[in-house]
Every structure is written in structure tokens, then in C-alpha cells.
Design brief:
Largest sheet: 6 strands, mixed
Number of strands: 11
Strand order of the largest sheet: 8-7-6-9-10-11
Strand content: 15-25%
Distance between the termini: 33 Å
Order of helices and strands: HHHEEEHEHEHHEHEEHHEHEHEHHHH
Bound molecules: nicotinamide-adenine-dinucleotide
Shape: globular
Number of helices: 16
Length: 414
């Protein structure tokens, strides 16, 4: 299997031919593509902290700043044992593409620490967060690079990092981090933003295909932040969510599920009332399959079992390139992660805007501002799907990479 960053570069190569039709100066285009195959900056450091038992421990840490032609770098910080330089580069590239897909004025970046945070106490986690913030302070900031939470990091960790950063620079700078708790300048509506953005995209797809919301059934893999909010809000929008799962298995009822009731039971009992496996969920006879858990959920062996007519990628990277080939041949549309889950970074952008102005919006204002961004991103891509006769991912990459390259050319970088 290709490494994550090799897959990312392959996705870039797949749109070069389409882009050649857009630029008279092919040399500039190819120079820009060459620049887009590597990050602008890559920082690394071993973070040394004292453990509660008095011993010292060291954790490799990274910050990858991919491209900032369209605006400050923007990307989360991941604490996970599988973090690697290759993964950082791929995720930072995908952030660059995602921000361009929804047209928000950011480039892309990503950071991470190779650590199993579940093995650390809260005090050790705080020391690690403080060390990471010290490491990145010289090269992040509201107009430089704006970090946010990612896998295994959250609002509390952003709060600890913000405190370290502000102490170092000697001034308040809430716009230096997003995904903060509301009390420190976080945005209303951020928690559900990724799920809500996905529902807006699905509604536009349904309109474009002249389908009826009420007739469509959905299966959702994953019951975390993204899966829960997507399923709940899709149900409220009139779709029938027939199945949902977490890592232990799934629950299916073709008549439709009450997501809040399931969440209550899960909270009380610690697990779902399981009647199907995760593999069975992927092959259910539903209209829309929504992977909202992990990377590589849909691979070559299980892609051929998929009966849904649409895969809406709410997780990052849930479909391998080989699986996508199989889905394409079967006539199954795939709405890519860089569009489907971009509601999260869009509300992070709203958080940054509010912090810069020191003026805060209600949840209703946030949701109202999110909708036109998601719907016009979908409609731009739908137009490119029709004009270029390309699948959704290729159309999204074509538009996004063109926006990035246009900015690089305007700046005279090529
Ligand atoms: P989370 O940790 O809150 O939830 C993950 C869920 O996946 C959990 O319910 C877990 O039980 C489930 N899961 C794990 N392994 C599984 C398996 N094998 N089968 C079925 N379910 C499994 O994470 P999240 O924030 O909901 O993120 C989910 C995905 O969405 C990730 O790929 C993440 O990168 C992406 N994403 C998240 C956001 C956001 O705002 N949270 C934004 C963009 C993209």
C-alpha cells in the first residue's frame, strides 16, 4: 500500500492533465506542481518532560507547514503513537487542499507528537502540551500558522498551549489557536460543525440528483464527535439513519434509529446495543454510506460489498485509492473528505475571525454563515464534475489546486 504522503502526491498528479488546459504557461504550472510536492517548512524536536515518578521521558514532535500561498498555515496537532513525518506531510497537504476547497483564506499545516496519551496522567499531558507550545512558539501565530485540536487533543490542550504561547510573547493572542473552550474565545457551534457541514453537503447532492430526502436511508460508521453529530442532524433534516456503529460494532434498524436514545444508552451502559458487525454495516442495503471513524475503512476487499449509491467521506482518508477505483467502476459516487468534513475547519476560521475582532457570534449566526460556504463549495465542485466529466474527488482537487497555484503565481513564487 502507498504511504499516506505518496497517496497525496498521487492525487496531485491525477489533476495535472486537467490543469494543463487552464494555464498557457505550462512551465509555471509544472514548477508550481513541483513546489506542491514538498512542504515549505518542516520542524522537529524531541520534547523532554518529567514524568510523575520523577523519571525523564522524551517524545519526538513535529510541525509541518505545507503551503501558505492563500493565507496563514492552518492545521491540527495530533498526539498518537503512529504519528510519523510522512503522515504529517500528507495531513498538512490535505489541509491545504481542504481550505482551498471551501475558499477560506488559509494554507495548510499539521503537527504531532509520537506518544500514547492514554499512558500519561493529566499533569504529564499538560507538561507535554506546554513543551509542544514552547517548541512551536517561534513559528506560529495568528498571521503565521494557526494550530487546532486533532486526534487525542482537545480544547483543554489548546488552552494549555495558548497560555504557554501568550506568556512567551507577552500579549493576549487568542487567534493563535482555534478549537479553544468557549470561555477562552472558542466559537459557538464548533462542536457540531463538522457533522452539520456534512449534512449541508448531502442536502445539496440530493438536490443536484433530484432525489427526495425522506426516501433516503443512511448508514454511519463511527459514533464519535463527527458520527454522532452527522447522524443526529441528518435525522433532524429528514433522512432515515438506519445504522450506526462504534469500534465494538453497530446497530441497524431499517425503520430508522433514534440517535439521542442510542447516545443515552451508550452513555449509561458504555456500549451500543449491537446487532451487526462493522463489516456488515459497510455492506448494508442503504442509499448513503458515511464512514466517520478512521482512515482506510473502505479497502479493496470490502469495497465490492458496498451497496450504497453514495459514499460521503466524513472521516479523513477513509477510502483507499484501490477501493475508490472499485467504487467508481460500480457507479458509486464518493464525496471526498476535503469537501464533506470541511465544516470543522470553516468554523475554526470563524473562531479566528471572532478572536481577531474581539466580537462574538451566536450559534444561530455561526450555522447561518456555515451553510452558504458548504453549499457553494459543493456547487462549484458539482459544476466541475459536469464540465470535466470527473469524479467528485478529482473535481475538488482540480478546483483547489488551481486556487493554490493561482495564489503562488500571483505572489511570484513561480
Ligand atoms: P472520535 O474519536 O470522536 O470518534 C471516532 C469514532 O470512531 C468513535 O466512535 C470510535 O468508537 C469509532 N471507531 C473507531 N474504530 C472504529 C472501527 N473500526 N469501526 C467503527 N467505528 C470505529 O473522532 P472524530 O472527531 O469523530 O473524528 C472521526 C474522523 O473524522 C477522523 O478521521 C477525523 O480525522 C475526522 N475529522 C474530524 C473532525 C472534527 O471536527 N472532529 C473534522 C474533520 C475530520
Amino acid at each position: 500500500m502507498l504511504s499516506a504522503f505518496d497517496s497525496a502526491k498521487k492525487q496531485l498528479d491525477q489533476v495535472v492533465l486537467l490543469l494543463e488546459g487552464e494555464y498557457q504557461d505550462r512551465e509555471k504550472l509544472h514548477k508550481a506542481i513541483g513546489l506542491l510536492k514538498k512542504p515549505q517548512n518542516f520542524y522537529r524536536k524531541a520534547l523532554k518532560i518529567k514524568l510523575d515518578d520523577g523519571k525523564n521521558a522524551s517524545f519526538p514532535a513535529f510541525r509541518c507547514q505545507y503551503n501558505n500561498a492563500r493565507g496563514p498555515f492552518k492545521g491540527g496537532i495530533r498526539f498518537h503513537p503512529n504519528v510519523s513525518e510522512d503522515e504529517m506531510k500528507a495531513l498538512a497537504f490535505w489541509m491545504t487542499v481542504k481550505c482551498a476547497v471551501v475558499g477560506i483564506p488559509y494554507g495548510g499545516s499539521k503537527g504531532g507528537v509520537i506518544v500514547d496519551p492514554s499512558a500519561l496522567s493529566s499533569a504529564e499531558l499538560k507538561r507535554l502540551a506546554n513543551k509542544y507550545a514552547e517548541f512551536i512558539t517561534p513559528f506560529v501565530g495568528p498571521w503565521i500558522d494557526v494550530p487546532a485540536p486533532d486526534v487525542n487533543t482537545n480544547g483543554q490542550i489548546m488552552a494549555w498551549m495558548l497560555e504557554t504561547y501568550e506568556k512567551k510573547i507577552g500579549t493576549h493572542a487568542p487567534a493563535a489557536f482555534t478549537g479553544k473552550p468557549i470561555a477562552l474565545g472558542g466559537s459557538q457551534g464548533r462542536e457540531e460543525a463538522t457533522g452539520l457541514g456534512g449534512v449541508f453537503v448531502l442536502e445539496e447532492y440530493v438536490k443536484s440528483k433530484k432525489l427526495k430526502v425522506k426516501s433516503l436511508t443512511i448508514a454511519v460508521q463511527g459514533f464519535g464527535n463527527v458520527g454522532y453529530w452527522f447522524a443526529k442532524l441528518a435525522g433532524e433534516a429528514g433522512f432515515r439513519v438506519a445504522a450506526i456503529s462504534d469500534s465494538s460494532g453497530g446497530i441497524y434498524d431499517k425503520k430508522g434509529l433514534d440517535i439521542d436514545e442510542i447516545a443515552k444508552i451508550k452513555e449509561k451502559k458504555g456500549s451500543l446495543r449491537i446487532n451487526i458487525t462493522n463489516e456488515e454495516l459497510l455492506g448494508l442495503d442503504v442509499d448513503v454510506l458515511v464512514p466517520a471513524a478512521l482512515e482506510n475503512a473502505i479497502q479493496k476487499p470490502n469495497a465490492k460489498n458496498i451497496k450504497a449509491k453514495l459514499v460521503l467521506e466524513m472521516a479523513n482518508g477513509p477510502t483507499t485509492p484501490e477501493a475508490e477505483e472499485i467504487l467508481f467502476k460500480a457507479g458509486i459516487d464518493v464525496i471526498p473528505d476535503v469537501l464533506a468534513n470541511a465544516g470543522g475547519v470553516t468554523v475554526s476560521y470563524f473562531e479566528w475571525v471572532q478572536n481577531l475582532h474581539g466580537y462574538y457570534w451566536t450559534k444561530e449566526e455561526v450555522d447561518k454563515k456555515l451553510k452558504p460556504i458548504m453549499t457553494s463549495a459543493f456547487n462549484d465542485i458539482q459544476q466541475a464534475v459536469e464540465d470535466k466529466k470527473a469524479p467528485y474527488r478529482k473535481a475538488a482537487y482540480f478546483l483547489a489546486v488551481k486556487r493554490i497555484i493561482d495564489a503562488m503565481i500571483l505572489r511570484g513564487r513561480v
